[in-house]
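Morning. Coffee machine broken again, so started the prediction first thing and wrote up yesterday's gels while waiting. Chain of 256 residues, entered below exactly as on the submission form.
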Amino acid sequence: MLLWLLLLILTPGREQSGVAPKAVLLLNPPWSTAFKGEKVALICSSISHSLAQGDTYWYHDEKLLKIKHDKIQITEPGNYQCKTRGSSLSDAVHVEFSPDWLILQALHPVFEGDNVILRCQGKDNKNTHQKVYYKDGKQLPNSYNLEKITVNSVSRDNSKYHCTAYRKFYILDIEVTSKPLNIQVQELFLHPVLRASSSTPIEGSPMTLTCETQLSPQRPDVQLQFSLFRDSQTLGLGWSRSPRLQIPAMWTEDSG
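Came back before lunch.
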């Protein structure tokens, strides 16, 4: 019996699934870009917000690091991931250490549909003024001379953001432009997998179908709703908070 499925996102609450939980990688301070010479702390946590028993494993550009603490400090750019004995590998987080005078920072983490805060920072921020924010080369509305702006409902696309500002240099004002920034937008939940309680059901026997996925533990306020289909026809009562559908008895005509 072949079925396919869709998911809809609502709030609040969370449904647990049988998928192994991902580790969570957090940044402190929570910006994915920093100035060269600064330090950023990485914190690895499990889905229950407490570490599982055992060591923590860290990866820098897919190479295992010889550090097994749940918190490390970094000064080198690259992609970082972590895992614990009780979790699968976290999503990769790219941390940039820029030698430039002006940088654009995005608050981390960011998920599909989130509103994200962008911050334009000068190395000497007291002498930085008239900041302006851009998306794909076009100035964002109402973004003149602001320390931070909010970009609403971001998606996983290739949009590039940058900012400009004026730097005071003695009696001169020099315009400076940051490098382009691609906001790291993470998936809200894992690609769902449909499981059946039996791969070879006997006529008249019951069947349980389960839609397995994993919601990010960093978004506990989101409620996943599930719907299962056979040949484009909805099974059961439609959208449900439960990922499981109980079929009392399977018959030949249920094939599809």
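DSSP finds no helices and 23 strands in the chain. Going to sketch it on the whiteboard this afternoon.
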